[in-house]
Amino acid sequence: MEHIHDIALQDCPLCGGTGILEEEGGWLVYVQCLDCGCRTAELAYHAEEERQEMAKKVALSWNLGKVIYTGPGD
Ligand SMILES: [Zn+2]
Q1: How many other C-beta atoms can be found within 10 angstroms of the C-beta atom of residue 58?
Q2: pLDDT (average), residues 51-68
Q3: Does residue 70 carry a pLDDT above 80?
């Protein structure tokens, strides 16, 4: 299993905070800001190869500033 957490993430496009790659339920990946809570769209994967691909896609979205702000405490 490769380390998708090695993918480079820039600072939060909204607040400059730290973005982390999150995985949910073993089939969803997204990037979320630890400071303001904004996040990228979630992408689903069904296989290990897809997991890598989707992780790269959400990282790219994040790095391009394509985030959704859902408010603190979401
Ligand atoms: Zn932020």
Answers
A1: 26
A2: 96
A3: no
